[in-house]
Each structure stands twice: as C-alpha cells, then as structure tokens.
Amino acid sequence: MFEEIDQKKRLLDNKRPLPVSTLKTLREKLLLEWTYNSNAIEGNTLTLKETKVVLEGITVGGKTMREHLEIINHSAAILYVEEIVKKNEELSEWQIKNIHRLVLKGIDDENAGQYRKGQVFISGAEHIPPGHYLIDEKMEELIAWHNGPAQVLHPVEKAAMLHVFFVGIHPFIDGNGRTSRLLLNLDLMKDGYPPVVIKAKHRLAYYEALDKAHTKEMFDDFIELVKDELADTLDLYLESL
C-alpha cells in the first residue's frame, strides 16, 4: 500500500541535505497552501491570493475579522508544530491543547485549549462523538495508543489514524478539523515526511472517508486519501530538485 510513498521518500532522502533556498521556497509555498486549504475546508471564504495577502499583514476588504484570524492563527499553529518537530517531543495532550489554543486565539478565547463541556454533532456526518464526560478518558487512550502500539504502524498509516481517532473524539467545541490536520502533519513531519495538504476541492471525499472510518471502522479510504495527498507533496519536492 505504501510502496510508491516509500520509494519517493527514499529518493528525497538521498538528495538531503536540500539546498537552503529550495527548502525556504517550498516551506513558504506549503505553509500558504496548507493554511488556505485547511481553512477553506471549514468554510473560510478567503482565496489563496487573499490568504497570502493576510499572511503578509494586509487586511482584505469585505472579509470578517474571524476569517482573518483563522488565517493568522493557523500560520502561528504551524510554527508551533515545527518547533515540536525540531525538539522531537513525544505527543501529549498538552501539545494538542496548545495547538488548539493557537487555532482559536482571539476567536473563542474562553474555549481555546479547553475540552468541550457538552455534546456536539458533526454536520453532515452519521458519527456522533462521545459525551463530554468521556473526553478525558478517550484522549488519554488516544495518547497511550499513539505513543505505544501505533509505533509499529507505517508512519503514514499512523498519522492518518491519529487524525481519524482525534476527529472521532471531537474533544473541542470548535476547531477540531484544523487541529486534526495540524496533528496529521505533526506526526508525518516527525517521521521525516513533508506536510500533507488536504485540498479543499477534495472536501467531500475527505468527509466521506472520515465518516466511513468512524461508522464502519473501514479506514482504507482515508489512509488512501492521505497517501495520495502526500505523494503530491513528495512530487513537488522531487521536481524542485
């Protein structure tokens, strides 16, 4: 299932260390596209070009303050994820809460970094997340699974499953989608992969694969989607070299 990905990663690893200028350009491109697409999936109406302008510190007329903050916050959360990767820290609830706190900073400070206190429902999905009174237990189980049994999985499968299980728990009142995609890439980057960009144009397939994983425990569609998006990023790196 991962032969193509493994081959492309080997090709990329054989070209390391990559030129500093190339790495800088790729990082800037991926930070922009990751931020744009992750927010667009959640309904943010800023275009890719408008997202770039906001990241440069310019306000876009006709767009809400929330939409601007979603862009700025996501970029800050990526920087935090990169710091965790550099330190090679083991995944923890503290990190997850910090990521979420950055995602909702200035948007919903009361709930930023705090597990939800009530039931939530995922719009358009059959899956119903667990009651709020189970979140502490479910998150502890998730961390224990990730830092224990999951370590034998292929890195792409491990990262994809982390995303699936986290979204299934839906531990926060808002911002779970953005946080889950940040966690997906945190896990991939720690294993030496470049980040994945789940494209907004694949939103329907993305949601359908997640719901299939949650309601039928059939994970292959979601893992395949992540694998395909990762292959695109690896191709971008290889073409740049």
Automatic annotation (TrEMBL):
Entry's PANTHER family?
FIDO DOMAIN-CONTAINING PROTEIN (PTHR13504:SF38), FIDO DOMAIN-CONTAINING PROTEIN DDB_G0283145 (PTHR13504)
Q: Which top-rank group of organisms is this from? A: Bacteria
- Annotated Fido domain residues: 91-228
What Gene3D superfamilies does UniProt report for this protein, alphabetically?
Fido-like domain (1.10.3290.10)
The protein here is known as: Fic family protein
| Alphabetical list of SUPFAM superfamilies matching this protein | Fic-like
InterPro entries, from UniProt?
A: Fido, Fido-like_dom_sf, Fido_containing
